Amino acid sequence: PARIALLTRDLRIHDNPLLSGEGEVVPLFVLDPRLGGLSANRQRFLHQCLADLRATLRERGGDLVIRTGDPVAETVRLAREVGTTTVGVAGDVTDYAQRRERRLRDAGLDLRITPGVTVLPPGAVRPGGGGNSYRVFTPYWKAWERSRWRVPAATPHRIAMPDGIAPGPLPETPAGESPDALPGGETEARRRLRAWSREISRYDEEHDDLAADNTSRLSAYLRFGCLSPLELALMAKADDSPGAQAYLRQLAWRDFYYQVTAAFPKISTQAMRPTADTGWRYDEDALRHWQDGLTGVPIVDAGMRQLRAEGWMHNRARLITAAFLTKHLGIDWRPGLQWFFRWLNDGDVPNNSGNWQWTAGTGNDTRPYRRFNPIRQAQRFDPEGGYVRRYVPELKDIDGGAVHQPWRLPEPVRRGLDYPGPLESHRDEAVWLRD
Ligand code: FAD
Predict the structure, then answer these.
(1) Which of 203, 315, 359 to mutate to test the pocket of ligand 1 (most atoms within 8 A of CB)?
(2) What angle do the packed helices 71-82 and 95-106 form, to 10 degrees?
(3) ipTM of this complex prediction, to 2 decimal places
(4) Which residue numbers belong to the known binding site?
(5) Residue ranges making up the domain that contains 97
């Protein structure tokens, strides 16, 4: 008998345990109009993923059923049309996903939870001493790397659709907000994956070089499951170059935050270390300058403008901009997290929240009081200033590393720039401006 594959964060045919296996499978995606969590950028990306997956499935004799409405009600309705009660869905950790699982079961469906959103399902490795989840990365990484991973699922050659099931329309692709964002979809993801497999060995040397911009840029494809994280991890594991090993470690960070979130589902709103979650300032004006990329600190502004333009920001710039908001301006991490969440195509609850809490010192950082001096960071990771000049055109004529401290330029040059002076930090009187 046919079963339904309720696709969510796994919009691919390669290594998709939901679509492989014996028997007929009817792939379903439900567009939930109440899903406020999807920003305009991610709406666009999602639609591109759905269009691509539908085309792929059609080539294989099947289709992607697309319905709009409440995911549980629509799944129940399709199950009735198909004449089945068996529904598969990929296990996920957010509150939303957990509620959906409960409601599908309560609706009388025989729900099968499959892996695939992470390399290792949360809880697959546990710390000694009985805890449910790791709170510190290094021991997690060691256990993760040593553990046994599942065998990737076979790619289905054919997806047969039962007669008489209407595939349903895919609404027009919504306009995103970022003009230079990457397009969604498994086909594009696999093209980029092939290109990345030729670059990966240099990752350890180049991943922190802002101007070189040589990271995988696959995060949004992982976010929507256009690529299997297991496939990427196996690729990296099979390659013993230091670059591939460093890349593997980053994939483990992704899994790490999923298992943190499974144990601490309120991660996007509540501090994991409440004692460190005090003393935040509320300064709308400073927050807006940060959001607009007009703090007057070029490395911060470059990152914030990349975020808007591309719906993505380099990891080093995410660290610098998030630390600037929380540790220099002293502003609460939650509005920062929400701003990132609005723009990032890879934006998801576990990684966005986990990293924001890490940076703010309220989360899993073992050195929560560390400081990031943005000027020193800029000099180290963008020594020639190429990253700043790319995103802050007001400074494009300033040569070399001088671009990081426009306030030090000769007065006539400075006056000629259409660029603000640095925003005052009320917390520590702009220590980063001193030598
Ligand atoms: P690569 O450098 O090629 O890394 C490979 C993969 O490893 C990434 O695709 C990603 O899946 C994973 N990864 C890398 N670094 C991290 C990390 N620190 N934590 C978790 N996973 C990691 N990543 C998201 O996927 N979604 C988010 O919403 C998100 N928000 C962030 C917010 C802040 C404040 C910070 C500091 C980091 C955030 N990150 C987030 C992590 C990281 O910045 C991005 O995953 C990375 O920049 C994506 O680019 P890439 O694919 O080229 O990464």
Answers:
(1) 315
(2) 40
(3) 0.99
(4) 203, 215-219, 247, 250-257, 346-348
(5) 3-116
